[in-house]
Amino acid sequence: EVQLVESGGGLVQPGRSLRLSCAASGFTFDDYAMHWVRQAPGKGLEWVSGISWNSGSIGYADSVKGRFTISRDNAKNSLYLQMNSLRAEDTALYYCAKDMYDYIWGSYQFDPWGQGTLVTVSS
Amino acid sequence: DIQMTQSPSSLSASVGDRVTITCRASQSISSYLNWYQQKPGKAPKLLIYAASSLQSGVPSRFSGSGSGTDFTLTISSLQPEDFATYYCQQSYSTPRFGQGTRLEIK
Fold this sequence. Notes:
Chain A is mainly beta. Chain A has strands at 3-7, 10-12, 18-25, 32-39, 45-51, 58-60, 68-73, 78-83, 92-102, 110-113, 117-121. In chain B, a hairpin with a 5-residue loop joins strand 9 and strand 10.
């Protein structure tokens, strides 16, 4: 069974940094692109960033470009999101999601998703 | 950026009803359209991909159609477990979701 478990969320002051992690199991992690998608409280879904299976292709939403960095460690079956210069509007539940297809970048079909880790940016 | 607009934003229906949710893209996205279901306190779940392909394990009462700019998600006979929020998402370019449609019990 595919499992994605996010961690690293918490309360952080504006302008500070936070690093999220996603531990993957139940599939061949290094065959698949991975993504971060967030959901502000009571709001809809927003794709944040994605990374190809070999880290050769990376994408970011305009809202986080230059502040967030996605990375992965295939030896550890782990996905990361380094979030710098955090703003109040970054407050959200951050989901890790697996791409549907192996060895394809840009299919952007997210299945499955983890349960999320909550990031709250407030002074 | 391609914008996605869902309608309606909310919908009340009864068990056994046939329900249709629509999603419109601001420009043509061919069939690069996916549908997700999200229940309160849970992560989204992929229902339909590539506009009309049913994800494995999803009941056949769910179906999707459309291409270009206009798409629909249909639930042929609502079951109690179907009351949730539904999102469309374009995968033609940088992913973007619709604002969601909340399906409530009448």
